[in-house]
Amino acid sequence: MSEEKIIKAIKFGILSPELIRKMSVTAVVTPDVYDEDGLPVEGGVMDPRLGVIEPGQKCSTCGNTIASCPGHFGHLELVRPVIHVGFVRYIYDVLRATCRRCGRLKLPEDELNKYLDLLKRLEGRWPLLARGLTDYVKRKAMKVVECPHCGSRQFKIKLEKPTTFIEEGPEGPRRLWPTDVRSRLERVPNTDLRLLGHDPELSRPEWAVLTVLPIPAISVRPSILLETGVRSEDDLTHKLVDIIRTNERLRESINAGAPEVIIEDLWDLLQYHITTYFDNEAPGVPPAKHRSGRALRTLAQRLKGKEGRFRGNLSGKRVDFSARTVISPDPNLSINEVGVPEEIAKILTVPERVTPWNIDVIRRYVLNGPYKHPGANYVIDPTGRRIDLRYIRDLKAIAESLKPGYVVERHLVDGDIVLFNRQPSLHRMSIMAHVVRVLPGKTFRLHLAVCPPYNADFDGDEMNLHVPQSEEARAEARVLLLVQEHILSPRYGGPIIGGIQDYISGAYLLSSKTTLLSKEQVSDLIASSGYRGSIPEPAVLSPKVLWSGKQIISLLLPQDFNFRGKANISAGPLKCDDEECLWDSYVVIKRGKLLLGVLDKKTLGAQQPENILHWIAKEYGNSFCREFMDGIFKLSLRYIEMRGFTMMLTDVLLPNTAIKEINELLDNAKKKVFELIEMYRRGELEPVPGRTLEESLEIKIMEVLADVRDEAGEIAAKYLDPFNNVFIMARTGARGNILNITQMAAILGQQSVRGERIRRGYDHRTLPHFKPGDIGPEARGFVRSSFVSGLSPIEMFFHAAGGREGLVDTAVRTSQSGYMQRRLINALQDLRVNYDLTVRTPDNEVVQLIYGEDGVDPARSSYGKAVNVDRIIERVVGWRL
Amino acid sequence: MSDFISAKKLDELLDSARSLLPVGVFNELRERLTRLQLTEDEARRIIDLAIKEYLGSLIEPGEAVGTVTAQSVGEPGTQMTLRTFHYAGVRELNVTLGLPRLIELVDARKMPETPIMVIHLDEDHRYDRVKALKVARSIETTKLENIISKIDIDLATSTIIIDLDPEMLEDKGLTREDVIKALSKVKALSGRVSTDDADVNRIYVEIPVNYDFIKIQKLRDRLLKLKLKGIKGINRVIVQRRGDEYVLITDGTNLEAVLRVEGVDPRRVFTNSIYEVENVLGIEAARQALINEIRNVLEEQGLDVDVRHVMLIADMMTMTGVVRQIGRHGIAGEKASVLARASFEVTVKYLFDAAARGEVDELRGVAENVIIGQIAPIGTNLVRLIMNPTIAKRSE
After folding, report:
1. What does pTM read for this prediction?
2. Which of A42, A245, A700, B352 is deepest in the core (most CB within 10 A)?
3. Boundaries of CATH 1.10.132.30 in chain A?
């Protein structure tokens, strides 16, 4: 292995002409690229000394092949100097701040010394202040009209974008040619440059006026061979050819003694080509175009923007050892696991070093080869030679030859650790480590409880998987990134992983009072949960031994666990605030026994702080919490399978009496609306303070219509069986809410766009089905039907209008919040906690003297609190209170 | 169960924990424990658990708290609404909420889209609606257009005729004389304002001679916007009852001027303009205002985000003594590292600047190290092993 080097710092500066010549391997002298035979011309821009192009070739400069030759710079001697666009500002500032004759900074000597002294003290310690000082000095010097050193008068210098300088002397404006600019800049002494904030060692101002142009290596601008056999050159090569050609023409004109005007024109043309070579989007310069009319992508454009070098290639890189496919659910996995298709497991590899302890296992992998599952794809011998097992006929010989010290890149197998990710990666729980389970099929399988952190569902979502390759990476993945380590979210200090949907319905049904289980059922459930232990005394002995669901759940709870709290169903008529609860909506667990209450979203759900999962994770550790979740979730699914759980049309079908009642309600509301409109027309409507009459009318109509939907919902709820499947889901928080049920069973209600009733469409009406000026409920998007009854075409149209707004809103929001998050990350990413619990920037500036004013990690807090005293008391003595 | 711990013994136990726990936690613990009947063993276990829990909840050195904060605030951004809502309680005013407001806050904009103040009144004025209204009137800007019923230009006599609305005058607590005084103060019109003896509500304004028609129109418009009373920037004041007191809610904000108004309780005047808070009350107040505002936005949207994250954002924005924006013109643009700046926005400009100045990137931050392919000194890589090889050799 090559020696490992650490980059300590990167210096930025301007290349001096000497340096450019020194790093150059050849001078480029001719605009010709290829000769008649199609071979690159020596001294042209594709000179072979600039680096290898064809694979297999050896570099004539360094002798390396294409993989290891870094490419080499050439150089072009410019006939006349040219201004570098990127440094125009720098040149302009220095020109104005220094004397036109002696080149000194236009401030008196004593002042210069004073500032230099100050600058030395500020530098390093207060970079921002030092910058402020240099800017101040610069501005002050620019204002001076007479040089305090040589006494010569100063004239105003104007910059004509992009690269022309004009001095307004007493004889009128005169153009400063790059040669003039350069000779002035050369006179500026180093100390004065320092005061202007520039390091003269790294960037002398005259270097910003180019006399030599570096020609980048061929590897920077590779030519592509099209299928037709035609060579297609890179944009940069085209630009370089333009520059060289213009340079040659300029040289010839000068040598031929052409008139000044022609030389100056050519000089400007050279300036143009070099300007667009650096930045083809420079303001005031028409972009250089390709033959097809497409603007060339030159140096600045390569760096810029999302797909540019910085954001596209340096801050984010493409990686090997990764896979991507569709995800699907698998409740039989542990939440720590991920199911990997065998096909993928045979491609992704883990390098494993052969030792006396694993040599037998690894031999078997090698024997299986690359095409049989627990196999291996490569063997690397101690000299670093890589053997591709795809091309080995005698695997046995290779397997025999294995010795400690060899490294085998074996297939992914059960128990390996991998990183699993779903975009958008908005928080750290978007990338977690999972333990591999190689499974048949073609999709990644994951446990449903990890859907909330990934924000995943299975309507076609795809996810990525990465295999860590070093021992350190694997160790960090196992200790820090494993799913169980992320049960508690650092956003609010509560569990983000937990029960969803059927897990909640199942837990509710299993724990409800009416659930009594036979011995067979109990055995079945217990077996599914993975519980190993004895079955408790049955709750009912006669006529048949029966166990309650709560007893089974209690088996999984820790022996000393106490808990009390409201269930999700504790609302409305089922509300309970303490143990005296008729509805079983107050949960009490004493010493690991679920005594009262049903388990639902509040107690087992994801994103519900201070629930059972939260306390178990905090008090018994993440590992135990994971086991608990695996157990209880399997239990509730097994039970829901046993009992059966579905949703059907009759769950939301109302009896005729209810429909009649709702219709009456609607008729009344409609009447009320028309009364309001009538009052408004007569001018009797009382306006809401601060609103116009029209707005007041709208507000009042909307109120009436919103009320009527709520009332209709109440009627629907009254007539529907409160223990039907849909209601169970809504009440326990498994899925849906009362509003959803109302919309299915009773009435959709008012559709809105921008928080108003729907008003756009034709003049004075929304649709041609209405009379102009109709502002009654139906004409403005009130939908009387329910999803069960079906919508009329007009209603369907309004409903779609409301729905469309939602879609547009989401699209706009994601881009806005994405940008905000990028800025937040960029502003804060360097902050870290130090050993003294201060929060500091990388330059050791203190941001907080103690993190969060109390030094508490939100992820380890109890919903924000450092210590939850009530919970501790509950833990210790809750069993007897 | 009979031998419960005595109060004295409990105090002893608690005292031993005092130095190990934060004051708030300790007080809560003491308060709870003294109200319970506990055995000595139980009390001991509770106290031990509290200490254990506190120490266990401390943050790990090296933790990338900035990143966690940015994620914790950014991630719920996707769940926020885009629309502005009616403010709870005040139907008259619209307030920017949700994502646009959050963006506005981290952008450190000079003026919020919907500036609003909540002004509490002092002891004398807060319980009486009439007195509260009086304060409200002195704050609300009243312009000429608010109190007139008609304004006409009479070209024949070259006058502008203003008809006052006596009801509005009364409502705003102004008199005809106030209006005349204000009009006379307009430079072009001194000495040209007169009244009508027949109609108390009519005021004549003589137009200066050299005015052409366009100029007269402009004068009329200017007179309509003439401020008669109140504080600049505050367009409307609404008096609202909150609990047992009356509170003023304003459309528009001007903290400095409102603090001087008689009848206002200066300790309880709030504005949603961070910029004003910074200028009037200072940077610490601005930090607190930022925390409050960000928390309000998140809470109103029903999103759970730990305060510590909000505090870190506010601290980062205010640490230099002025409020800095999160973005190119603030924190990101002032970073020491060239590569970090270049990888955020306006890549090329930062690179050219760095080259011209001869800057050196010390590669201490996260973004720089990602770019060069080294591990950033954060989290598990904060650990440095310092070894002096000469000492190691000597001990051999």
Report:
1. 0.88
2. B352
3. 649-797
